[in-house]
Amino acid sequence: MSNTTTVTLEVLRYDPERDQEPRFQSFEVPYDEDWVVLDALNWIKDNTDSTLTYRWSCHMAVCGSCGMVVNGEEKLTCKAFLRDYLGRGPIRVEPLRNFPIERDLVVDMEGFMAKLESVKPWIIRDEEKPVEDGEYIQLPKQLKRFKHHTLCINCLLCYSACPQVGLNPGFIGPAALALAHRYNLDSRDQGRHERQEVTGSADGVWECTFVSACSDVCPKHVEPGGAIQEQKIANSVDWFLDHLIPGRSSAGRTKE
Amino acid sequence: MDVLQTDVVIVGAGGAGLRAAIAVAEADPALSVTLISKVYPMRSHTVAAEGGAAGVIKENDSLENHFNDTIGGSDWLADQDAVEFFVEQAPKELTRLEHWGCPWSRDPDGRVAVRPFGGMKIERTWFAADKSGFHILHTLFQTSMKYPSIRRLDEYYTTDLLLEDGRAVGVLSHEMRSGKPVVVLGKAVILCTGGAGRVFPFTTNGAIKTGDGMAMAYRAGVPLQDMEFVQYHPTGLPGTGILISEAARGEGGILVNKDGYRYLQDYGMGPPDPWPRKKAMELGPRDRLSQSFWQEQQKGRTIQSKWGDVVHLDLRHLGEKKINERLPFIRDLAKSYVGVDVVSAPIPVRPVIHYTMGGIASDITAGTPLPGLFCAGETACVSINGANRLGSNSLAELLVFGKVAGEAAAKLARSLPAPSETAALAQAKAHRARAEALVDGSRGTEAVATIRRDMMATMESGCGIYRTQEGLEATCATLRDLRARYRDVKISDRSWVFNTDLTQALELGAMLEIAETMALSALLRTESRGAHQRLDHPQRDDSAFLTHSMAWRQGDEPPRIDYKPVTITKSQPAARVYGGAAS
Lengths: 256, 583
Description:
The complex is a heterodimer.
Chain A: E1 6-13, E2 23-30, H1 37-47, E3 67-70, E4 73-76, E5 91-94, E6 101-103, E7 106-107, H2 110-118, H3 140-147, H4 157-161, H5 163-167, H6 174-184, H7 192-199, H8 213-217, H9 224-244
Parallel strand pairs in A: 1-5
Antiparallel strand pairs in A: 1-2, 3-4, 3-5, 6-7
Chain B: E1 2-5, E2 8-11, H1 15-27, E3 33-37, E4 53-54, H2 63-73, H3 80-99, E5 114-115, E6 125-126, H4 132-144, E7 150-154, E8 156-164, E9 167-175, E10 181-185, E11 188-191, H5 212-219, E12 224-225, E13 230-236, H6 247-250, E14 254-256, H7 286-298, E15 303-305, E16 308-314, H8 320-326, H9 328-338, E17 347-356, E18 359-361, E19 373-375, E20 380-381, H10 393-415, H11 421-440, E21 446-447, H12 448-462, E22 466-467, H13 469-486, E23 489-490, H14 500-524, E24 533-534, H15 542-545, E25 547-554, E26 557-565
Helix pairs in contact in B: 1-4, 1-10, 2-3, 3-10, 5-14, 12-13, 12-14, 13-14
């Protein structure tokens, strides 16, 4: 492929002020073996069509802005190299699935933001420790229990890939449920039961059918699929214990 | 035009803005906070910081040590009252973040771990592997959601400060998804809009780092301070400019030239111990290391790569286990973007624009010369960084001064009545006309991308690691010409829905003004200090330049530059000492 000089991108375009429905537009872009799909989009914007609309910032796979669907697969476009798509025809770039399109490659993520907040992703404690008393002791093995679930960059690839999000838009979904699990597993936190009211609800973990598409597309190995299954087990154990042991249901819980 | 009345307006929802918002909410839950950002909070560039945040916590360390390292690192241009306050507050803020759930890496006994960093005498950098900024940002963002008094306006682009009787009383923003303008009025305004690395072509900074808030304050008559001091980080990936954390050297990585020689020993940084010696060799300050690269390049001792000249950052001796535990992101980035597995091969690196030491003139109170206006984070020049920031001080800075700004704004908001809409609306309408003219296409011939490319090129050629009068004069002249061309800028996008063509045009307007303050301040500072190195004036000149430069906007003309003395409390200017002599 060393003699490749250009590549063709087929980009989904949609401007709600002008278009009845989305369409595809082809762009010829110079080929550079170091370029990612995002570089090609930036080249188009600077040289061919400055109306092309998409989100991006860090260009190092950590801000989570530039998630799109490239040739049918969810990708961070700052880490999807053109060289990996050569010889297979035009590279098709579409916005993430399962979200309303705002314009071109930009999707409406307000629903996701509400879901994120709904799981109470902060440390919940009965009593706050004064800063003057120093840090909480957290052993490396305690950190290790939840560390991988902290790595979510909110890129939304998992919501695009999840069939259940497509079927039930109310499903809290992989990233937000993984985040709830991250706090539940944190040795500094006491809010698991409070979060379970949300994560154990009809739109919570039980909506997941364990297809695991979320974990497959996750660029940060957060394993949201596993986080959801672990919560199903924890919720079930709690339910049985609450019903088998009289008086237990209020024990260890924050204000019910 | 819609008007939103609130108590405290915060622009920018990165680390500083989120910390400020939480501080207001904790100071008084009855105060309403409106937190405006052009991106969702987790996209803010705090996310890209890797190595960690400095704060004295271990028994072998002291506030005095952190103070001295920071002042020496700043080449005595930092304000010492501010640095004293900063080093004292940093550990408290980092502990608070631990209480909020930040997954700091731990020692075997469960206490927070620290690592060595450049220019620091003792290891005091708290870290969360090599994604410290990411974890700080997400911890703050997630924690901020528990305060009902914080209302976010995500993806609202703010263009202008609004004034009344010489006070800041709000901002003009527009909702990006609709283009709809909104005037957000408040009793205090805090700018936390980050730095302006994007005025250069080769930078670690994300696309959003266009200095919007600095330009807003500047246009409102607030001076920009110490703008000539722009930090090159010594180790970025060639081609992309992706940051390879100083933590790689803190953990023991070494830098070698084309002969495999640890060249830093030739620039006063030796001896080249096999172990990492603090404040020496690879653990020297960033300005010195970036300058040493340039010197090696002049001598023809850098390595030719397909991306241009590089040196090698070698981590192989650290071993796979330590690399995976401490530097997993670095391993991933190097593998993805330059095809190098750091376990088995050295990483090609070169200096890259990283941090704006200058910014909106501020002080220990996070206030500015404009009443009602506060600022924090990279957008502010307090200054604790002076002529050269030490790595891992900026994450601590945005926490410390974000909190100060929030508390000061809350106090002010409680003492003032709500501003009137009349004056603010009249200004907002005038400002809004600028965006409307761009979108309706009634004027303009100059393309955004062309002016931006020319701006970046002239900044790199004249305002880089080493500067000269001739080069800076040429850059100043080019920038003046570009500003004139910008007055005739045009965009093609006629839609009000998520018009990024408009956003980029407005960002470019901000960047051109900021670039001009950098170049002119650099031209007039005829000495070498920290990150500002003049080949034609190679010595530091305390008799003339132990001062902060202040750039004041003069309309379409270049800024006026005057000077303000540095605050010195207990450390008289002396020679900066690194290498064996420092320990």
